[in-house]
Amino acid sequence: MPAVWHDLSADAQDLAILAALLSPLLLLGWGICRGYALMPLLRSLFLRHLWTNLAFIALVAISVGLGVGLIAQERGLRTATARVAEKFDLVIAAPGDEIGMLMATVFLQPSDAPLLDGQMWQRVAEAAKGSARIAPLAYGDSWQGHTLIGSTAEFVTHLSGDLAEGTAFTAPSQAVVGAGVPLRVGQGFAPAHGSSPAAEADAHDDMTVRVVGRMRATGSPWDSAIILPVEGVWLAHGLGNGHADAEDPQVGPPFAPQYFPGTPAILVTTRDLPTAYALQSRFDGDDSMAFFPGAVLSRLHGLMGNLREIMSVMSVVTQVIVLAAVTTGLIVLSRLFSRRLALLQALGAPARMIFALIWSYAALLLGIGAVLGLAVAFGAVHLLSAMLSARTGLLIAADLGWAELHLVAACLALGLLVALIPALVALRRDVTEALRR
Amino acid sequence: MSLPLSISGLTVRAGARALLTIEELALPACSLTCIRGPSGAGKTTALHALAGLLSGTGRLAWGDADLCRMSRMARTRFRGAQMGMVFQDFLLFEELTARENALISAVFRPDRAALSRRADALMERLGLSGLAQRRADRLSGGERQRVAVVRALAHDPAILLADEPTASLDRATADALIADLAALARAEGRSVVIASHDPQVWDAMDRVLTIRDGVLEAG
């Protein structure tokens, strides 16, 4: 049996879990309602207290929708951040906070970081020679809120592949912009010193950078970044061009260690894992810090995973509370139907039919609520994704998946089980008393 | 097929208190009987006992079926097969059409096609054909009670029990309803027991019984 299970595709396994969650209740429902044509009565009960029924449905839909939506959102956020970090194999920076450096280099969150000097650059370059590619990542300036990154043309290619438009930069005063930057190819701009809101807009007024290319969309904060040769960043700050000849028009490595002004981070892209681990081990010490963004992110995801579990538990608890409220409501509501139920019993309706009617009525409300809850979750997920994407620059493609369907199915299953209570309570009422009422 | 009623030593209790006592009573098949008495005397209780909704000690037999010896489930089954009931305030499902109300017992009966045919015929006979698709809450009191009668007779029961069927109707409508009910019952050979304090109903019946303080007298 385990072998058969493992041979199934992931979708088939998920479908089987969904069926396993729902089928006992479908069977139970079939067993309870078998032989009865309940639709006219269900329609009557539904229309009788229409607004109350709609309120019950809304309550279930909102509780399911928000619970499921938040969990789907968390997964979307995790997937989006992992996708961005994929491009960043190994980051070397000055010793400090790995998470802060991760946020600064991968997610472009403003940060003041100490610089790695030319000696360090040289050591990394020599260690990586033939087995890895390295690129400086120098940040600190901006244009209208868009972060400026000094790096290399090779890094641009690594990040976005072919350009969507224009060419790679070949001079310090040229730049390639991210897909979401409102600058046209050929347009010039003067960088501001620092990042918003404290950026000094006129600090580099004497420098005009011209856009020569546009990257393809990456679904990351880099879509709103502007990348220029690292020499351009250094020259804007009067630090030279990093080469032995100050008039050298060349951009990109090799840099002369004694003229290298410094960089907050070096990105190392390796061909294989052993090389990456060897470099990480070599440069993670007193003079520098080397970390795998993916590993740091994984730790963060671990923390988020704990949050996810808490959110899942809270979501289930909320739904159980809503279920309890709906069940109590249904018991009260079924009291209002007691004369009608008594009439049916007076006409010869068997107890199972009364039980089936109230159970199906509860199942109807819970079922509609659960389905609408999925729609609410779908809407909430897309709204939250759009809001978070706008805030972070991450393309968060959160969507409902099997896990959410399983959660809804489990809640529905629990609800249908709990719905047996009002059905049992309805059976215990005195028929003659209800008829006299 | 109609059923005779035979009662002896029947007592229906609520705790220690006797709600209904009937020493001896025999009603022939196909008879139309009225139970009269002041408010609170026990007319409805008597009707509920005859329907098997209340259980008692002694003997209460429709034909050979002694309700006092039956389980609740068996009484329900007997009621569903052999009885139809009509109530003072119609007890219709207001959100459904007249025809849906007339066919309400099709929800739990297997013979839906036969039930449907008979309900349509009864509706035509009681002048309700044109109102079949009208919602119950848009019918007059008389029309509602006619729908309730069709509902009670759609499965062709041997016994019809009615609790103050004319109490919510004006005189003319009440008279027409009782005339129709009596005619239908006689034509189809049904036993009818009606609880009513309406003298016009008494006049239309074969026999009138009186109940006082929960004691039904056969006289």
Describe the 3D structure.
The complex is a heterodimer of chains A (437) and B (219). Chain A is of the alpha+beta class. Chain A folds into two domains: 2-83 and 300-436, no CATH class; 90-291, no CATH class. In chain A, 57% of the residues lie in helices and 12% in strands. Chain A is built from 15 helices and eleven strands. In chain A, strands 1, 2, 3, 4, 5, 6, 7, 8, 9, 10 and 11 form an eleven-stranded mixed beta sheet that branches. In chain A, strand 2 and strand 3 form a beta hairpin. In chain A, helix 3 (39-48) packs across helix 12 (351-392), helix 4 runs antiparallel to helix 10 (293-336) and helix 10 (293-336) packs parallel to helix 13 (402-418). The radius of gyration of chain A is 31 Å and the shape is elongated. The mean pLDDT of chain A is 85. Chain B has 219 residues and is α/β, with parallel strands linked by helices. Helix content of chain B is 35%, strand content 26%. Chain B has helices spanning 43-51, 72-82, 98-102, 112-125, 141-153, 171-188, 199-204, and strands spanning 5-14, 17-27, 32-36, 57-62, 65-66, 83-86, 159-163, 191-195, 207-212, 215-217. In chain B, the strands form two sheets. A six-stranded mixed beta sheet of chain B has the order 6-7-8-3-9-10. A four-stranded antiparallel beta sheet of chain B has the order 2-1-4-5, with helices on one face. The model of chain B has no long low-confidence stretch (mean pLDDT 92). The chains are: A alpha+beta (437), B alpha/beta (219). The A-B interface holds A 35-38, 40-41, 43-44, 47-48, 339-340, 343-351, 353, 431-432, 435-436 and B 44-45, 48, 51, 53-54, 73, 76-77, 79-81, 83-85, 87, 91, 93-96, 100, 103-108, 110, 112, 151-152. Chain A: This is Putative ABC transport system permease protein. Chain A: It comes from Paracoccus isoporae. Chain A: Keywords: Membrane, Transmembrane, Transmembrane helix. Chain A: The chain crosses the membrane at residues 15-38, 50-72, 310-333, 354-385, 405-427.
